[in-house]
Amino acid sequence: MPELRRLMEGIVTYERGSDFRLTDKELLRRGFGKHPEFGAFVADRGGGRLVGMAVHYEIPFMHTLEPLLMMKWLFVDTEHRGGGVGRRLMRRMACHALETGHGKFCWFVLKDNAPARAFYRSVGATPDPDWDRWMLGPDAIAAMAQG
Question: Where is the N-acetyltransferase domain (predicted)?
Fold first, then answer.
């Protein structure tokens, strides 16, 4: 758990996130408990050290009445990038998609993450032509809730 949490914190930091609160105990409960909320494929260097992860979850159903497979995070430690770890994790995600009957899987990429975009293109991925992510932040939620 500590190594998976370390990788998760690594990508959150890389993505300029803050307030990382996930603990080993919470990670164990949410990912490996009675009702797992996510799955993870990991790249193990040996000696108890992970060097990469692909974390995924399902949106239970869509308009097709089939679930949508989402990749939450793909992350490889900086010193192990360029060695095929990310490609192997993406291959494992593709196999998982096939094994679980998903015709596709999706993920988000920061707009300024050119290396990730180039990597994803190199494995045959394309940006979704139809969708951009939108959000309501705390102030907008409060204003909307008040009418």
Answer: 1-147
